[in-house]
Design goal:
With 431 residues, this protein is an alpha/beta fold. It has 10 helices and 11 strands. β9, α8 and β10 form a beta-alpha-beta unit.
């Protein structure tokens, strides 16, 4: 029935009033039909981009791990010719992302480094069809030995003479060759602190005179004047056994250097011969710290934020002042030990008893080095009692619950392999 407007409300009519027409559902459906492909496309691209991001993130992590694993093997395969580095890379990448394909393993652009490149396929919904992206992502990483400052702190007391010091020199030279290959100028520096009962400076440095140095920084001139009356009171046959000059036979300290020939020459100068004055480990650690930090007396060190600072401490003896017994105990006083860094400044109360001044100072100097951002690797050569082993473990910068920075070398022939193991840890650095 057609609709009509009501002009008289009181008048009944059978005609229905006019109403507004309803929206056409066909128009909305047509619009949705047009927008649906667009919405699906946007959703497909979003999913594809998410897949690409996740796949690349996983791949980058796998490649980083592979480069680090490869760098750890550089001490055993420095020029990548033995296949050891490449195998370590492939194994580590596969362990972290099985579907990744390693496409390149080469020497990195940095000195003594390895560069790894790998690819992985991404499951695509739309972007590949539209030509917006390929289905493969790629990642690269490089790891190796750079931005390092390393100081060898080496016991040069008489018990190290012969094969022990020769093996230490060999191991130190091989590690130096790894860090600074021939014909290169890497951003890596190496120094040396040979020590006995004191250390010797080859030239004057800020605040210190040339020669051997006492624990308080004063110049060591043999037996302190306060003890000379006791020296002259000894029978002649004892006095002739005392060498007042126990300094000139100690190799000199080498500041951080990039000059490989200078470093090797300093390493080779160690003989562990000549008159000795005991084993004062704390002095070796102290001067290792002095060399590695950029402040005076040595200023060759870089910032701890820029360089990884490493101290390698090797000794075959306890902190020794001649009062500890054993084969090297002196039965008379004073003696050669009275020319060490403590007696030399007039102190005769610093002894090597367990928990005594020398051991306490050793721990204190190690802590000072750690507080300055220095990592300490400690090597205990020969046989030792539990007290001395525990001291060497305490000075090491091992991760909590481990002894990863402490090494035991019962035999002289263990020393080169231990230096290689330390070298492996120095390679753990992404560049």
């Amino acid at each position: 029935m057609p609709c009509s407007a009501r002009t008289n409300p009181s008048r009944s009519s059978r005609r229905q009033p006019c109403r507004s027409p309803r929206p056409r559902r066909a128009s909305a459906s047509a619009l949705m039909a047009l927008l649906l492909p667009v919405l699906l496309g946007v959703a497909g691209i979003a999913v594809d981009m998410g897949n690409m991001y996740l796949t690349h993130t996983r791949l980058q992590a796998a490649v980083d791990a592979g480069a680090l694993a490869g760098s750890l093997e550089l001490p055993y395969d420095p020029d990548l010719s033995k296949g050891v580095v490449r195998q370590a890379v492939r194994d580590m990448v596969a362990a972290n992302m099985e579907e990744a394909k390693v496409t390149s393993i080469t020497a990195g652009t940095e000195i003594r480094s390895v560069k790894v490149t790998a690819q992985a396929e991404v499951g695509m919904l739309l972007m590949e069809v539209l030509g917006m992206a390929g289905k493969t992502v790629e990642a690269s990483a490089m790891a190796g030995f750079n931005k390092l400052e390393v100081v060898f702190v080496i016991d040069n007391s008489g018990s190290m003479r012969g094969t022990p010091i020769d093996m230490v020199k060999q191991a130190s030279s091989e590690l130096t060759d790894l860090l600074i290959p021939d014909g290169t100028t890497p951003d890596t520096k190496v120094g040396l602190v040979p020590f006995r009962g004191k250390i010797r400076l080859g030239e004057a440095v800020d605040g210190y005179a040339k020669g051997c140095v006492n624990a308080d920084g004063s110049l060591n001139q043999g037996i302190h004047e306060d003890f000379m009356d006791a020296y002259y009171a000894l029978p002649y046959y004892y006095r002739r056994s005392i060498t007042l000059d126990t300094c000139s036979s100690i190799p000199t300290v080498l500041a951080l250097s990039r000059d490989k020939h200078q470093i090797i020459a300093a390493i080779d100068s160690q003989t562990a011969t000549g008159a000795a004055s005991g084993t004062i480990i704390s002095e070796g650690i102290k001067w290792g710290r002095n060399i590695l930090t950029p402040e005076a007396p040595f200023t060759q060190g870089g910032s701890k934020d820029d360089f990884r600072k490493i101290m390698i401490v090797l000794t075959d003896g306890d902190t020794e002042d001649g009062e500890c017994g054993g084969a090297y105990r002196a039965s008379y006083r004073p003696n050669n030990y009275w020319t060490n860094a403590y007696y030399g400044m007039g102190v005769d109360t610093a002894h090597c008893n367990d928990g005594g001044v020398l051991n306490a100072d050793m721990l204190a100097e190690a802590q000072a080095a750690k507080d300055a951002g220095i990592e300490i690797f400690s090597i205990r050569f020969g046989s030792s009692d539990n007290t001395d082993i525990n001291l060497m473990k305490k000075i090491a910068s091992s991760k909590e619950g481990t002894d990863d920075h402490y090494f035991d070398a019962p035999s002289v022939y263990d020393i080169p392999d231990i230096f290689k193991k330390i070298g492996k840890q120095l390679g753990w650095r992404l560049l």
